[in-house]
Amino acid sequence: MENSEDDDKAMIVWGRDEMNLVELPFGPITPSSGKTLAVVHPVHDTVLNRKVIRKTIITGSDAFGLPKPIDDLVLVGMMALTKESGFQSARVEFSVYHLCRVVGWAIDGRSYRRIENSLNRIAGTTLVFKDAWYDKGEKEFKSKAFHLIDEVDLRSRDQIDRSRKRGTEREARLSSIVWNQVIWKSFQDGFIRRLDMRMFRRIAKGRRRDVPIRLFRILDKRFYRTTTARFGVEQLAVGVLGLSPRYAPSQMRRILDRAAKRLIECGYLAEYQYCRLHGLEMGGVVFRKEVKRVRSRARRSSDPRHKHRLKQDTKQRDE
Question: pLDDT by residue (tens digit) across 167-207?
């Protein structure tokens, strides 16, 4: 059962996304039997004025394993509910019904089980940041090891039934999570970005949504003050979206193509184009955000300046 347009208007419109989490894949895209995922980001440190390696190690629990792409949706949904509560407390109370609506899922037993399994995986996952967690309050990268969620209290059907007999059913319907103090501090410091939940739900519908959702989140961060974003293909595919480093370049591009076209279909991206980047064997890719204009798409597409805009935008890095 999908939500109607009128029903969508009653749901959360603007959520929040924590900026550290946007930059890394919270678990692999493809199913994995392993318990650990290492993410390496070579970057230029502006303070040291040299290249440094920022590394994140994601370790799943024995019982629940590494996070799955579906956990991205639940994590974003919980951040949206935290924003809705006004960031008043690290403990966030919610109903499973409301969380399902926030992420665009049907209200049924299957969705309940998905949320239960997802929250258990998130709570059981250890994140180790080696000079990779940015503390906005202190304006520096730090080494941290923690779980995103310290506690999960998800009310079962039996609990609700017992509460109904006691006449306290309404209170028993509220589940809760407790954010770890590290990520809670990041929320409080304002290292979060507004996220369009209507677009999020639109992209999340249908099959093969995992890569488009992750691409949407990183692009939404990079589009903060510009309408273009440029990445190295391998760094984006492996280091941010979570594709296997064993994939051939052509396979990575096919997956990126599919994700970018999904964002174009949803009205988020205007276009994208591959380009050469100095020192990168797989080259780069440039995305341009869709910007609503009075001028029609037909008139824009006939404008010769529009056809060459991406080439002009990437010319300086093509050599």
Answer: 665 555 689 999 999 999 999 999 999 999 999 999 998 77
Strands ordered across the beta sheet of 284-289: 228-232, 284-289, 269-275
3-class DSSP state for residue 9? helix
Q: Which residue has the tokens 């995986």?
A: 121
Backbone angles phi, psi at 28, to 5 degrees: -75, 155
Query: H or E element: which one contains 94?
Result: strand 91-94
* 3-state SS assignment for residue 130: strand
Alpha carbon 294 to chain centroid, angstroms? 31
Q: How far, in whole angstroms, is CA 193 from its chain's centroid?
A: 11
Residue pLDDT, tens place only, 86-131: 999 999 999 999 999 999 999 898 999 999 999 999 999 999 999 9
CA distances from 272 to 208, 254, 265, 285, 313 (A): 19, 13, 13, 7, 11
Give the integer Cα–Cα distance in Å for 161 and 104: 26
Q: Which residues, given as ranges, of the chain have pLDDT below 50?
A: 1-10, 294-301, 316-319
